[in-house]
Structures are given as structure tokens and as C-alpha cells.
């Protein structure tokens, strides 16, 4: 039994639906007061998935002083979302945000746990290899769309060939296909199809 379930149920009763970000905040708070987690270990992204995300996110916009500055999304009309480090975005990131490499790495680690938990929650008990999981987290890290995508739904249904074909449809930003997204999705699909 999950010792945190009653706490989450109580929060939902007061607040209504809670977002994945709220779940992460609650989990971190419960960790600090030593409320145990469920006995089944959460899935973690493997080295192939991390390498894939590092390849495509880069740790860009290094300043002469060695720190990193936020930059606008190069493919969107309005520059949103602002990004820093290993593809980190959010309300705390915008023009003028500057981080050290250690801050970039720490945020990536936190984001990675959050996105892995979101993908795990979506997949539930659907059979998934480590490489498939890594590819799905990499996709979700970039799109935030695992739960609403046909790709995710096909994977959960066990249609792995159909799911793999869906990666190539996620290549648009503001209605335009981007060469970088085509290559990224090809890499994700290749990892998804691999054997481990």
C-alpha cells in the first residue's frame, strides 16, 4: 500500500485535480518529513535516454564568465518558452536568467525525475523496455505531450510499430517543420525501436 495515497487524496478533495508539478512538490515535502514512498520503485531514465536528451538539449548560451544565460525558443514566433541549461523551461526562466553549470545540471536532474514520473504514471503497467521508456521520456521532456499523444496511446495499447511511426509527426513548431526536430524525433524513434 502507498502510505502517501491518503495525503494525496485529501489534497485532491480540497483542491480538485492536481498537476504533475503539484505531485512533485508534495512528494518533495513528504520526503523532507520522512513519509515513506510506495514500495515499488519508480522507473528511472537510463544512460541512453540521458545521452539522447543531452545531445538534443545541449547546455547552450555559455557566457564568457562560464555561466549560462536563458534564450528564447528559436523556433517559435514569440520566443516562448525561454530556455536555459539542458532544455529547462518554466515560470522561473526568462530574459536575464543566468545559471552556473551546477545549477543547470541540478535542474536537469530534478526535471528528469519529474518527467520520468509523469511517463511512468501515464504508462501504468503497460509493458515497456528500458529503451522504450527512455525514448518516451525524451519525447515528453521536449513536448510535454505523452498523455495526449497518439504515440503514447499506441504504446500503451501494445502497438509498438504504430507508436514508433508517431515520433516523426512531432516535428512542428508554430506550424513549421523544423529540421532539428526531424532529426531529434528520428533519434528518439531509433532508441524506442532498439532491443533492450
UniProtKB/TrEMBL annotation:
The keyword Hydrolase applies. SUPFAM superfamilies: Lysozyme-like (SSF53955). Keywords: Antimicrobial, Bacteriolytic enzyme, Glycosidase, Host cytoplasm, Hydrolase. It catalyses: Hydrolysis of (1->4)-beta-linkages between N-acetylmuramic acid and N-acetyl-D-glucosamine residues in a peptidoglycan and between N-acetyl-D-glucosamine residues in chitodextrins. Its EC number is 3.2.1.17. It is an enzyme of class 3 (hydrolase). It comes from the Bacteria. Belongs to the glycosyl hydrolase 24 family. This is Lysozyme. The lineage of its organism: Bacteria, Pseudomonadati, Pseudomonadota, Alphaproteobacteria, Sphingomonadales.
